[in-house]
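Sample entry (148 residues):
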Amino acid sequence: MSNIVDQPEHYFKQLIPKRDELLLELEAEAERENIPITGPVVGELLYILACAAKARRILELGTATGYSAIYLAKACEAFNGRVVSLENDSAMAARAQLNFQKAGVTKSYYRLGYESFESQKTQNTLFGWNGCQTDAFHEKNSFRQNVR
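Predicted structure, serialized as tokens:
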């Protein structure tokens, strides 16, 4: 019979590497201000998956303070990749930009507002997409059809 972990998040938190001060600061800030972030377990998983896939182009929808984008940007640095992140709230995007500078991942990060992303030229340049509309992200099948 196999053992099932009762509290998987607690279990996996014991296995993740030590986080730097900035990530710890962002976790405390998220708790204090009720900002949704992925957290350290999912952040580390994103890092591992991006490294395993040798990701060079990552699109993040909703940056908040940049917590998960920092994990992703650090992962794709080794492959000369970058994270393109969309954040509709300009104040939150400014906070994220400052956090990317603190994390030293500005070369791997590129921020766009949703209005910029709707440009077909921008989509083709960054991702090789053809005519994907931002509102299509709400429709599961539209997104898959527009990605090559």
